[in-house]
Write a structure and sequence with these properties.
It comes from Conger conger. The protein is α+β, with helices and mostly antiparallel strands. It is 34% helix and 18% strand. Among the domains are: 125 residues, no CATH class; 101 residues; 155 residues, Hect, E3 ligase catalytic domain fold, CATH 3.90.1750; 106 residues, 2-Layer Sandwich (Hect, E3 ligase catalytic fold), CATH 3.30.2410. Helix 4 packs parallel to helix 7, helix 10 runs parallel beside helix 12 and helix 27 crosses helix 28.
């Protein structure tokens, strides 16, 4: 091991190039090869240099003693009373040592005798790395925690604005979850490097030495964004400059260039990392910064390059001059027998033919070998030590975030977590084979790790734990409380961090995303089951896990639906809701349970299937009606209208008569004796939908190519017309009736806060959508010929749209603006009036639980007619299915055209639209009233109860005539 630069340290076991030349000339040099003890660690500070030997002892020499005689320059001895030194770092006035047990000792050279002082605050932390600036120190423990102490004049401790200097090490919590690979410090600046190459800097920045693009000091660790994805593997700091080395062998420098130490062929400052171009293509393997100079080692060429200040010979060039470009150090090949290590500090440079092991200490991580070691020692004499290791490993987010990395982890970003979760699955499944060991790990995670997770993580590497823990939960299916703690931690995250986590979830492979959903789903189901069967109050636990499921559902939607909706449904909810309708021993509990379902769980609609949503919607409506009846018994929700002037009467009733929309709607047609048990209301909505379409001037614009309607951009109808239309739709949903105005799905998306796209325009107006799609596919020449601007239907769709020509570059903007104009801008008032009216007509806000498709189906019904289902589900009174009249009835029915079949459906139910379950969910009852002279009577339908009173006709011909006539003119008569 040799040294060149300011002074001679032969007494430490280091030699210079030349005994007589302080400049390190490349001639007549020799290497001390027969040292008594092998040197394993070296550190150079501003005023001292220290070494450690393989025996765990060391020596240090002060540069202040350079003028003293050789007899008085004898190095001071370094030793710990009961431990061996493993590594050390020199500051301006102290040496910080790490023992082989991981304890930290500090020696101040200004205080004699030289007795290392143990830093008790770090006892038991098992420190693996230390780095000293001039007057501050940072230390990294085996569990990934970072500690700082010393002077804090420029924020170099990273403890925040106004942080004081401290002689006691304090944990730097802002990086507590980042898996760190190394730490380093310069004059008054500090750096930390993550295992995946993220660089964090803090402290003094007067010359841009932090690389963050300005000269402002940083009092907390700040990401050096310009180094993201550069795959940084090593950082070295000088007094006011910094160098970083990438995995590909590139060197970037920044900070002060006063002496040429940045290697950019100039002496100016660089505020951001800049590539050292002269080293391009050399594949540098090591870098080291002295106070004002820099070294770079290219192992393949067996060459060390130096640049910067050379006034004391630290460049090894044989001249006492500065260099602002990298030039080779004049060192013969005999020194490059091994891998070699370069070091620098102060005004010295050092080269060792061997790799110094103390530079390779890493934080703990979980892998297959570690788990096997724990399992093999379980219950043995070594188990006590292993228990401590388990606690230390699984209580730290850093260790988990450092584990299970894939080959692409240096490209960690919001698109790539850097994890190979298949490794985590294998390891945790092996852990699951030892139940006691698994419980111990689960307990540490629940009570120590999760409570310690920061609410504002530093980045993706800090969030890996949220992807790893579900794999542990997967083998801990009975530990539901741990799942709840995990859910709490997720929603403690700051919104911007939760957004990043959602992005990482969306990039998970389907199998792992499904496992995550299943883990949370299983816990939520179990809590609900306990509530239903044991009457135990798990409402908080259910809500927290349901909230995570809802968030995962939203992620699933944005990532092209990795999973079907049914994976999120909790079937236990339906059983809980139904149990609220039974006569229970504890009415108060079940009432509270019902309120919990309506008021809290309804906020997470993804966990409800369609039928359960509808059941909850109906129960809530019923409870609202009962409560309102007690408070406002005189105000009802009745409509009395004349069929001949239906629309006028309806609008007048809604405008002029106070009504309570919480009450069930009761419709009465004047001059008809029907009593509304549901059938009259349904017919009312079926008829009024036709009336709206025939209204002049029109409220709705009909698109001929689709048969669908949309709001008129410039309506001539009354100011409250769209509000009244919304009220009618809301009343229909609340009354569980169908009203089909032939709106597209876009309406229901807008109602639920989902913005329509070109896909929705294709449903409403296929021709327009096709033209827009062709516009996106056209060549640039064709676009020029079209000479389109940003207008449609005489309106500018963006500000100054007439001045903007549609080009290849902005055509997507044009299409988006076009769709936005059709669905939003041109009908803003109309839609807002409609939505306000809808919320008034349907006072239960639970309609917001439905998906757009579900809301559309519930309001408009569906048209998937499987007519055989109608026959299959039919019931009979005073008839048998084999009776001739019944056989004739079905024969005639199936002879009917599709339109006539729909007329029969309207005749029976008041609408030709079907509920969600289609005809399979409709049961009609065919009744024989045993009337005398049956051929004289027509069939009669009771729409409220879906009963068909079918006389027992003498022949199929009579039945056909009477039946067809009845369904053709059913609105002219009929009993309800």
């Amino acid at each position: 091991m040799i040294c060149w630069g300011e002074t001679n340290f032969r007494e430490l076991g280091l030699d210079r190039f030349c005994q007589d030349d302080a400049l390190g000339i490349a001639e007549n040099h020799h290497l001390v090869t027969a040292q008594k003890d092998k040197i394993t660690a070296v550190s150079v500070g501003r005023r001292m240099i220290a070494v450690v030997t393989e025996k765990g002892e060391g020596k240090f020499c002060l540069q202040d003693d350079i003028s003293q005689t050789k007899s008085r320059r004898k190095p001071a001895h370094l030793a710990l009373s009961r431990e061996k030194i493993d590594s050390l770092s020199c500051g301006a006035d102290c040496i910080v040592m790490v023992s082989r047990k991981g304890n930290v000792f500090q020696l101040n050279y200004r205080i004699k005798p030289y007795i290392p002082r143990c830093l008790s605050a770090l006892n038991g932390r098992h420190v693996i790395q230390v780095a000293c600036g001039d007057h501050h120190t940072i230390a990294l423990s085996r569990d990934g925690q970072l500690f700082t102490w010393g002077e804090n004049s420029n924020g170099q401790l990273g403890q925040g604005e106004g942080g004081r200097s401290s002689e006691t090490p304090k944990c730097l919590f802002s990086l507590s979850g980042i898996p760190l690979a190394m730490i380093t410090a310069g004059g008054d600046q500090s750096f930390a490097l993550s295992v995946s190459g993220a660089v964090f800097a803090w402290g003094k920045n007067s010359a841009g030495q932090l690389g963050v693009g300005d000269k402002e000091d940083r009092h907390v660790p700040t990401t050096v964004k310009s180094l993201n994805l550069k795959r940084t593997v090593f950082i070295s700091c000088g007094d006011k400059h910094t160098a970083i080395l990438t995995k590909g062998g590139l060197v970037f420098t920044f900070g002060s260039g006063e002496y040429g130490q940045l290697g950019h062929s100039s002496n100016r400052e660089e505020l951001q990392p800049r590539l050292v171009a002269e080293l391009w293509g050399s594949s540098v393997t090591q870098i080291a910064c002295g106070r004002h100079h820099t070294l770079a080692y290219v192992e393949s060429l067996k060459t060390i390059y130096s640049f910067g200040c050379g006034e004391q010979g630290q460049l090894g060039s044989g001249q006492a001059t500065n260099q602002n470009v990298p030039l080779p150090v004049h060192l013969s090949s005999e020194f490059y027998d091994g891998i070699g290590t370069i070091l620098a500090g102060g005004n010295q440079s050092i080269f060792s033919p061997e790799r110094l092991a103390s530079l390779s200490k890493k934080i703990a991580s979980v892998d297959n070998n570690l788990i096997e070691k724990w399992i093999s020692t379980f219950g043995s004499k070594l188990w006590k030590a292993m228990k401590k290791e388990i606690i230390q490993t699984f209580s730290s987010a850093s260790t988990l975030n450092c584990s299970f990395l894939n080959q692409r982890h240096y490209q960690t970003s919001m698109e790539n977590s850097g994890l190979d979760l298949s490794l985590a699955r294998i390891v945790f499944e092996k852990l699951g084979n030892n139940e006691n060991l698994l419980k111990k790990v689960g307990s540490v995670v629940q009570h120590t790790l999760i409570p310690s997770l920061p609410i504002d993580p530093s980045g993706v590497e800090d969030l890996r734990v949220y992807l790893i823990l579900p794999e542990l939960l997967r083998v801990l299916p009975t530990d539901r409380d741990l799942c709840v703690k995990f859910a709490e931690a997720v929603f403690r995250l700051q919104p911007q961090c939760l957004k990043i986590l959602e992005g990482l979830w969306s990039k998970l492979p389907r199998a792992f995303f499904k496992s995550l959903v299943e883990v949370v789903h299983s816990a939520s189901t179990w809590f609900l089951y306990q509530m239903r069967t044991e009457r135990r109050d798990y409402r908080t636990s259910v809500e927290k896990t349901a909230e995570v499921l809802q968030k995962l559902y939203e992620v699933n939607l944005k990532s092209s639906q990795k999973l079907e909706y049914k994976n999120f449904y909790i079937n236990e909810i339906r059983l809980c809701i139904e149990s609220c309708g039974t006569v229970p021993p504890d009415m108060n509990f079940l009432y509270a349970m019902n309120q919990f379902m309506v008021q809290r769980l309804a906020l997470y609609p993804s966990i409800f299937d369609m039928e359960t949503k509808w059941l909850l919607f109906r129960i809530n409506n019923l409870s609202g009606f009962v409560e309102n009846s007690l408070l406002n018994p005189l105000i009802q929700n009745d409509l009395c209208v004349n069929r001949r002037s239906l629309l006028t009467d309806t609008f007048q009733e809604l405008r002029n008569n106070p009504r309570q929309y919480l009450c069930p709607l009761k419709v009465k047609f004047k001059y008809e004796n029907g009593i509304d048990h549901g059938g009259v209301s349904q017919e009312f909505f079926s008829v009024i939908a036709r009336e709206i379409h025939s209204l002049q001037p029109k409220m709705l614009e009909l698109f001929e190519d689709s048969g669908l309607v949309w709001f008129m951009p410039e309506g001539h109808c009354d100011d409250d017309a769209y509000s009244l239309l919304g009220i009618l739709c809301g009343m229909a949903l609340y009354r569980e009736c169908f009203v089909n105005f032939h709106f597209p799905l876009a309406l229901f998306k807008k109602m639920l806060g989902v913005m329509p796209t070109l896909e929705e325009l294709e449903e409403l107006s296929p021709i327009e959508a096709r033209n827009l799609q062709e516009l996106l596919n056209e060549d640039e020449e064709v676009l020029e010929l079209l000479d389109l601007d940003f207008t449609t239907r005489g309106h500018e769709i963006v500000p100054n749209g007439r001045e903007m020509t549609v080009t290849k570059c902005n055509r997507w903007q044009f299409v988006e603006a076009y769709v936005d104009f059709i669905f939003n801008k041109s009908v803003k008032k109309q839609f807002n009036d409609f939505l306000g009216g809808f919320s008034q007509g349907c006072p239960s806000q639970l309609w917001k639980m439905f998906l757009p498709e579900e809301l559309m189906a519930r309001l408009c019904g569906n048209i998937n007619y499987s007519w055989e289902e109608l026959k299959k589900n039919a019931l009979y009174e005073a008839y048998e299915p084999t009776d001739e009249n019944i056989q004739n009835f079905w024969t005639v029915f199936f002879e009917l055209s599709e339109e006539k079949k729909k007329d029969f459906l309207s005749y029976m139910t008041g609408s030709d639209r079907l509920p969600i379950g289609g005809l399979a969910s409709i049961k009609i009852t065919i009744v024989n009233q045993n009337k005398p002279n049956p051929d004289d009577f027509y069939p009669v339908a009771n729409t409220c109860y879906r009963c068909l009173y079918l006389p027992n006709y003498s022949s199929i011909h009579v039945l056909r005539e009477k039946f067809v006539h009845a369904i053709s003119f059913y609105e002219e008569f009929g009993e309800y």
